[in-house]
Design goal:
The complex is a heterodimer of chains A (about 110) and B (about 160).
Chain A (H helix, E strand, L loop, with lengths): L1 E6 L4 E9 L4 H13 L4 E12 L1 H15 L5 E5 L3 H9 L8 E2 L2 H6 L2
Parallel strand pairs in A: 2-3, 3-4, 4-5
Antiparallel strand pairs in A: 1-2
Helix pairs in contact in A: 1-2
Chain B lengths: L4 E8 L4 H15 L3 H22 L5 E10 L2 E8 L26 H9 L2 E7 L3 E8 L22
Classes of the chains: A alpha/beta (about 110), B alpha+beta (about 160).
């Protein structure tokens, strides 16, 4: 898994890449928690380069989403889903529940 | 119709998931699985193995015995472990229509397996442990590329 973060004015941007399965998802969770622990509750996750995302990855994203949205303080939004990630979100009923944007710029600008 | 079979036996933890993914990828190549089905097989096996490492072995290292084979035009995956008995009836399917705030975070792995595969069933015996069988139908053409490789390529880990 590749992961980089950028603290922007509007939000914190996570750029993910590679394979995110159960062997590495906890690292993603740790990084998301580090952001919310630092008071960053507006998060964009760019998944353009994610080749595979398992339910373990989704669990970490959902966990962070719930934290961000608590008390209406923020949100976690997704950008640039690959077809396979899009399929998994659809199968799990998450696609209709999370804000998903075609481009990173749109996702960042939505905050 | 010639049959294709590959076996992977390893002892490990979730850190072995990438290796398992490569095994499935290579088996799909060998059996000439159609491209649309490959992702489904990859994901279903990954989810199943992750569940075994997390729940059957509670995160400790444990042995899994994974078989990928063709039966006619179908792919049949058999996953065997010696961990804690698993009862799928005890896992409620996620209600994907409920608002996400109200949904528990877990349970998606089994849900994905059932959505992606045509048949999923579990058997437990005190002697043999847990056996999971998953089938994906009509994803292999009439003659796999390496149909004469039945019974080969067991890859025990050290």
């Amino acid at each position: 898994m590749e992961l980089s973060t950028v603290d922007m004015k509007r939000c914190t941007l996570f750029r993910l890449g590679g394979r995110i399965d159960g062997s590495v998802a906890s690292e993603l969770g740790s990084q998301l928690r580090a952001a919310t622990d630092a008071g960053r509750y507006k998060i964009v996750v760019n998944m353009k380069d994610v080749t595979y995302a398992s339910s373990a990855c989704l669990r970490e994203l959902i966990g962070a989403w719930k934290t961000c949205r608590r008390w209406n303080r923020g949100d976690l939004r997704l950008a640039e889903l690959s077809p396979n990630v899009d399929k998994v979100l659809d199968l799990t009923g998450l696609k209709s529940q999370l804000m998903v944007y075609a481009t990173e710029a749109e996702a960042v600008g939505s905050f | 119709m010639t049959k294709f079979r590959r076996d992977l036996i390893l002892t490990g933890t979730k850190s072995e998931l990438p290796r398992i993914s490569r095994f499935v990828d290579e088996a799909c190549d060998g059996a000439n699985v159609d491209s649309a089905a490959r992702f489904d097989l990859q994901m279903a096996v990954d989810e199943a193995c992750c569940n075994v490492f997390e729940h059957a072995y509670s995160g400790s290292a444990g042995e899994i015995d994974l078989r990928f084979e063709t039966r006619g035009r179908d792919v049949v995956i058999t996953l065997h472990d010696h961990g804690r008995a698993f009862n799928p009836e005890g896992i409620l399917p996620p209600d994907t229509t409920r608002p996400l705030e109200e949904r528990p975070v877990g349970g998606l792995g089994l849900h994905l397996m059932r959505k992606l595969m045509d048949k999923v069933f579990f058997v437990f015996s005190p002697e043999r442990g847990n056996t999971l069988v998953m089938e994906k139908h009509k994803v292999v053409p009439g003659d796999p590329k390496q149909g004469s490789s039945e019974g080969q390529s067991a890859m025990p880990s050290r």
